[in-house]
Amino acid sequence: MKRQLLLSTAALLALSVSSPAWSQSMEAGLKFLDEEIGDLSTLSRAEQEAELEWFMQAAEPYVGMDIKVVSETITTHEYESKVLAPAFTALTGIKVTHDLIGEGDVVEKLQTQMQSGENIYDAYVNDSDLIGTHWRYQQARSLTDWMADEGAEVTNPKLNLDDFIGLEFTTAPDGELYQLPDQQFANLYWFRYDWFSDPEVQADFKEEYGYDLGVPVNWSAYEDIAEFFTGRDMGDGPVYGHMDYGKKDPSLGWRFTDAWLSMAGNGDKGIPNGLPVDEWGIKVDENSRPVGSCVARGGDTNGPASVYAIAKYLEWLNNYAPPEAQGMTFSESGPVPAQGGVAQQIFWYTAFTADMVKEGLPVMNEDGTPKWRMAPSPHGVYWKDGMKLGYQDVGSWTILKSTPVDRAQAAWLYSQFVTSLTVDVKKSHVGLTFVRESTIQHDSFSERAEELGGLIEFYRSPARVQWSPTGTNVPDYPKLAQLWWQAIGDASSGAKTPQEAMDSLCAEQESVMERLERAGVQGDIGPKLAEEHDLAYWNEDATSKGNLAPQLKLDNEDEEPVTVDYDELVKSWAEAN
Fold first, then answer.
1. How far is C-alpha 324 from the chain's CA centre?
2. What is the DSSP-derived secondary structure letter of residue 149?
3. Is 395 left (phi over 0), alpha (psi -120 to 50) or beta?
4. Could you tell me the residue ranges of all domains in the chain?
5. Of all helices (H) and strands (E), which one includes residue 142?
6. Which residues, 6 or more positions from 20, have their beta carbon under 8 angstroms from its beta carbon?
7. Residue 229: which residues within 8 A CB-CB, separation 6 or more?
8. Cα 503 to Cα 190: distance, rounded to the nearest angstrom
9. What 3-state DSSP class applies to 272?
10. What sign for the dihedral angle of Cα 324, 330, 331, 333?
11. What's the rounded Cα separation, in Å, for the pair 306 and 266?
12. How confident is the model over 190-200, as pLDDT tens digits?
């Protein structure tokens, strides 16, 4: 009898947890505005209240519903999960569980739901790198169609899509919007502004290299600066001129798919991504069908520019970075520059900004300003004007077709709430991952700019358009992305030369494409591999059509080093704006 009673109690408890009696409260919404938002919004207080009132009314049919959404664990999403989700629940009566898991786990859950049709999560914040996948597999809802049809009644009239800076990255070649940007950060150059500005250091550099120490415009200058600082005593002992990581780990793949090859100069011109050959070296035809990755099919994954990119990565990691960096992962290497022993880093994510400006760090001044700055990344010898110059991560709300309509509608309300004009300025101050132009231009960021090491200046500059996520040439991001860390890991460990590693990578990418072509799962926008020819053939074919890739190997991959004064660079941005 006792056991039966315990079972009955457990069953009732489970029922009460899964079906809570949630209610709506505008009072809770007003308290949220008072205590959390204040004047950190592009909307007036009256406009904020009106927007919250709209959310409450639109949510009435879903009161008591319990939805689940998921994102990777970064500061922005922690704020959403811990602060914005409870506020949304209190306002609307929709219980939101916002799970935070690793980026790879997000993709795995997404893949499982796409393949099984089982509704694991009602919405995902996944990278816009999957735009080519979502477009070709048609497992994600087109938000363009959604907002005009089943989602029309729950689409915020004040959403203001034109204000989002990343919609170009989440729109497919069919013109449809498949994802709504939630957070965005770039991969830039980071350096110790205090050391670069030191007259004694400047004089020593000028005497040794014959030109001014400054922000490197090209890789030749970056290499000189790395060499100059490595082993130099900057007051607290010798420092390193470069920081990176090299452990054979999934995060090593991001290090390269996140546009490293484009920085070297692989692929074609084109913003936001090179066409017909993109920064992964994947070529598409006039119908956006992938036709190859290897040079033998007109791709550029194993072309001279890509091999040069891998060779420079290895050379700098071995010669100028701390020895332990070779055994580090992305997350392990991230905090190292903040410890004060690194002069510059060519591949640094602005998502680290929030952690890099904490009081008491060796890289912070006593007045709360940073000793460091961020600037545009230098480019390799194969790079040409008109190419993308780096990567921009755009975590974006994605709703799969396998999610029931009512749950999708409730999740769509939440995704709009956490990106709304009411909350976006405050959220951006917490996470520093901008998705709205109005937020970037907000007066509060003009006031805070001095504390953020160039982040605001970069996002307000004309330069930012050269930073973009993976584009639509990639037909199956989850399958192809996992090939990269294994291939690069072989080069990093010395098991393969850079050429051998990239030859292997492009062949494996084409093997996946061949299977997709054979299966026909992506229809007439899926891969259709081209005939094989040599590099000279495809280079001539490309140049005859006004394209670049694959480029021929240069006789000399060293170029004249060029630097620019950081303060003059920022001034030029201001004048351009």
1. 26
2. T
3. beta
4. 16-577
5. none
6. 64, 66, 95
7. 195, 239, 240, 241, 343, 344
8. 31
9. coil
10. positive
11. 6
12. 999 999 999 99
Q: How far apart are CA 99 and CA 340, in angstroms?
A: 34
- Cα separation, 354 vs 373, in Å, equals 13
Angle at the Cα of 483 (from 303 to 540), degrees rounded to 5? 20
Report long-range pairs for 486-489 (Cβ below 8 Å, ≥24 apart).
486/248, 488/252, 488/253, 488/255, 488/256, 488/310, 489/247, 489/248, 489/249, 489/252
Q: What is the pTM of this model?
A: 0.92
What one-character DSSP code corresponds to residue 337?
G
Q: CA torsion sign, 10 to 11 to 17 to 21?
A: negative
Terminal Cα distance for the chain, rounded: 77
Would you state the structure tokens that stand for residue 548, as one six-digit string? Answer: 């670049």
What is the DSSP-derived secondary structure letter of residue 201?
H
Q: Report how far apart, in Å, the C-alpha atoms of 260 and of each of 64, 287, 383 are.
A: 47, 26, 11
The rounded distance, in Å, linking the Cα atoms of 301 and 484 is 11
- According to the model, what pLDDT value does residue 436 have? 98
In this predicted structure, what is the pLDDT of residue 310? 98
Of 183, 143, 86, the closest CA to residue 414 belongs to 86
Burial level of 160, CB count in 10 A (0-12/13-18/19+)? middle
DSSP state of 530: P
Which two three-digit tokens encode residue 268?
Answer: 């074609």
pLDDT at 21: 60
Q: Does domain 16-577 correspond to CATH entry 3.40.190.10?
A: yes
pLDDT recorded at residue 174: 96
Question: Which residues of the chain are modeled with pLDDT < 50?
Answer: 1-19
Percent of the chain with pLDDT over 70: 96
Distance CA 88, CA 90 (A): 6
Contact 495, 482 (CB under 8 A): no
The residue written with tokens 């569980």 in the block is 97
State the pLDDT at residue 13.
Answer: 34
